[in-house]
Design goal:
PDDEXK_10, rod-shaped, 5-stranded mixed sheet, Trna Endonuclease, Chain: A, domain 1, about 290 residues
């Protein structure tokens, strides 16, 4: 058969075969029998595709399951790692907190020790200062007693002519200056009319203190008799009359005041003291 004849046959089959197959079942079955040897049927093809699709679906499900399992495993590992990190952070924080607590405790102990040492030093210094103060007080008391003894001896000396009365007066005045913080002025004025010494003109000697506007007149003598007390009161009145100023206080300081002179001094409002340090800055209240 030539090529031209084959082409014609093929062309004729293409044109007439479909109609022949539809019109001749035997022919159609024969052709299908021949083709089955080389090609699967529609059902077989559909079954094969169905099996392939099912296989692909199963593989996809398996792959999806593996992916989900991998994701879950990765998440579990990350969660485990994060848990370990959090535990490590918590442990580190606990250790740091413990270390800080120990440091704070140590610092507190140091501060307490410093405070205790300071308290002991302060207590020791206070004791030293108290001891020094007490020593100074005892020393001052001893010196005061010594000076008082010296003044008493001086008073005896002045009383019996062994020491000048002026020296005794100066010593007593110096102590008054120290006690009052002011100057003791020795006033020596002449009584022309003899008001003090019963008509006999003579010198009138007084010790005057002016403090905060107050006039204080003193008599500083080694010994004071009853007549001396009257004389001192007249001296004060003489000074008040001459200077037109009222004395706020009249003070007699003497280690030897005659017992008979004391009632006179009390009646005349005269303060009497055995020694200069005994004189108060303000007048004591009268009972």
């Amino acid at each position: 058969m030539t090529d031209l004849t084959e082409r014609k046959v093929i062309h004729s089959m293409r044109n007439h075969l479909p109609r022949l197959l539809r019109g001749d079942p035997v022919l159609s079955e024969s052709i299908l029998t021949v083709t089955r040897e080389h090609f699967p049927t529609k059902v077989e093809v559909e079954d094969r595709f169905t099996r392939m699709l099912n296989e692909l679906a199963r593989e996809r499900e398996a792959q999806t399951r593996k992916w989900e399992e991998q994701k879950a495993e990765d998440k579990r590992k990350w969660d485990e790692q994060n848990r370990k990190w959090e535990e490590q952070k918590a442990e580190d924080k606990r250790k740091w907190d413990e270390q800080n607590r120990k440091w704070d405790e140590q610092n507190r102990k140091w501060e307490e020790q410093k405070a205790e040492d300071k308290r002991k030093w302060d207590e020791q210094n206070r004791k030293w200062e108290e001891s020094s103060r007490r020593f100074d007080e005892v020393h001052r008391e001893i010196m005061a007693q010594s000076k008082k003894l010296d003044r008493s001896i001086g008073a005896l000396g002045a009383r019996w002519g062994l020491q000048a009365e002026s020296a005794f007066r100066d010593a007593m005045a110096a102590i008054l200056v120290e006690s009052f913080g002011v100057e003791v002025v020795n006033v020596n004025e002449f009584d022309d009319a003899g008001e003090v010494f019963f008509g006999r003109p003579d010198q009138v000697e007084l010790d005057v203190i002016i403090k905060n506007g107050l006039l204080i007149i003193c008599e500083l003598k080694s010994s004071v008799s009853k007549s001396d007390m009257y004389t001192f009161e007249r001296k004060v009145r003489f000074y008040e009359k001459r200077h037109q100023r009222k004395a706020s206080r009249m003070i007699v300081v003497s280690p030897m005041i005659d017992d008979r002179a004391r009632p006179v001094g009390e009646r005349l409002g005269i303060e009497m003291y055995p020694d200069s340090p005994n004189v108060p800055v303000t007048r004591p209240e009268t009972r």
